[in-house]
């Protein structure tokens, strides 16, 4: 994993950023990892939520990872890989996305279901419905980790959004409901069950 990550750093060349997707690179790189990743008004997310800016957002994630390589903890590093992988999947860059998504699974995430979420997502990209369905069932059966309720309250206070257990089950349900469609469409909330 480390060798692959270092190789990714060595060969990454961002694409030119379209004017409509311009951002303040210094300001982005100055953000704390949590704010760069989770803040809906700042960080990479506003850029990644615009179809025409997804590639710029994916490149920004890689730039941030490269700039903060020694500062990110293991979970932050894996999360960065994961989110770049999601954007690459939405761009139709399947091979690149699969590698990034698998790099996004930290060993510390195994008990919280992230591995099954990753397996299900990769299975969707590889057109493997039985594996996607099996991963969804395992994720649905995953018990919440100790302290989840407190973490959920803290998350809501900081970011204004609820965490619902199991995390990302609705995403896998959407991938199943829209199986065979492009990832960007199947990941969309329109494919997910009504809350």
Summarize the structure.
This protein is mainly alpha-helical and 195 residues long. The chain has helices at 2-11, 25-30, 33-38, 45-48, 54-67, 74-90, 94-103, 114-125, 129-140, 148-159, 169-177, 183-186. Helix 8 (114-125) runs antiparallel to helix 9.
Outline: globular
Given as residue ranges, the uncertain stretches (5+ residues, pLDDT < 50) are 1-10
Beta-strand portion reads under 5%
Structural class: mainly alpha
Radius of gyration, rounded? 16 Å
Please report the total strand number as a whole number. 0
Largest sheet: none
- Counted up, domains total 2
On the 0-100 scale, what is the average pLDDT? Answer: 89
Chart the SSEs and their pairings.
Blueprint: H1 2-11, H2 25-30, H3 33-38, H4 45-48, H5 54-67, H6 74-90, H7 94-103, H8 114-125, H9 129-140, H10 148-159, H11 169-177, H12 183-186
Helix pairs in contact: 5-6, 6-7, 7-8, 8-9, 8-11, 9-11
Q: How does this structure look, described?
A:
The structure is a single chain. The protein has 195 residues and is mainly alpha-helical. The protein folds into two domains: 1-8 and 25-104, no CATH class; 110-195, no CATH class. 59% of the residues lie in helices and 0% in strands. The radius of gyration is 16 Å and the shape is globular. The model is unreliable at 1-10 (pLDDT under 50).
List keywords for this structure.
195 residues; mainly alpha; 12 helices; globular; disordered N terminus
